[in-house]
Amino acid sequence: MKRLAFGLMLLVLLWGGWTLASSHDFQHTIDDGPMSFSWTVDGENLHVKLTGKTTGWVGVGFNPEKMMKGANFIMGYVKGGKVKVTDHIGNNERNHKADKKSGGANNTSDIAGSEEGGVTEIFFTIPLNSGDSTDTALDPGGVTTVLLGMGGGRDSFRSVHKFRSVHQVTLSTGASEKVK
């Protein structure tokens, strides 16, 4: 009986986590070729959905200093039904590495995702200001540089992007302009 109760509780928690992350009604969306970036600002948090026509990773970066340097990247993929999401920092103009390896922390929560029919979709929440030295604070009313990218059909954060674009976005209103 205890096993059954534990199993049911675990099922509810797992299902509840998926529902929490994926049930947001996203207020804004940018559709750019094979990728979509949807988001909602909710108090001190940013809820995100990334969708890409790939069986590899999808990712978003915020406020780089130059090219990739200084950007706060969140990347994710789904392999064997399991979602993996990581928080990276652009450590130079053409590369990034995990926040945990740079003295920071992975500040993502409410993680969920799926991969079906050649499309990868991930959901996550990040704080607008994590206080982490490897993350930039996001001002919902200001202009945020958003980098979108996705990898080819390999579930590895080391694989190079097959698609990328740059947008200037006001997170609170959804106003956006594609830069590259």
Return the average pLDDT rounded to an integer. 82
> What is the CATH architecture descriptor?
Sandwich
Number of domains: 1
Task: From the alpha carbons, calculate the radius of gyration and give it in angstroms.
Answer: 16 Å
Number of strands: 12
Helix content: 10-25%
Overall CATH class: Mainly Beta
SSE string, helix = H, strand = E? HEEEEEEEEEEEE
Instruction: Give the CA-CA distance, first to last residue.
Output: 59 Å
Sheet with the most strands: spatial strand order = 7-6-5-4-10-11-12
In DSSP terms, counting alpha (H) and pi (I) runs of 4 or more, how many helices? 1
What's the CATH H-level homologous superfamily?
Cellobiose dehydrogenase, cytochrome domain
Explain this structure to me?
With 180 residues, the chain is mainly β. The chain has a single domain (2-178), classed as Cellobiose dehydrogenase, cytochrome domain (Immunoglobulin-like). 12% of the residues lie in helices and 49% in strands. It has 1 helix and 12 strands. It has one helix at residues 2-22; strands spanning 28-32, 35-42, 45-52, 58-62, 72-79, 82-92, 95-98, 109-116, 119-127, 143-151, 161-170, 176-178. It has a 7-stranded antiparallel β-sheet with strand order 7-6-5-4-10-11-12, with no helix packed on it. A hairpin with a 2-residue loop joins strand 8 (109-116) and strand 9 (119-127). The protein is globular and about 35 Å long. The chain starts with a helix and ends with a strand.
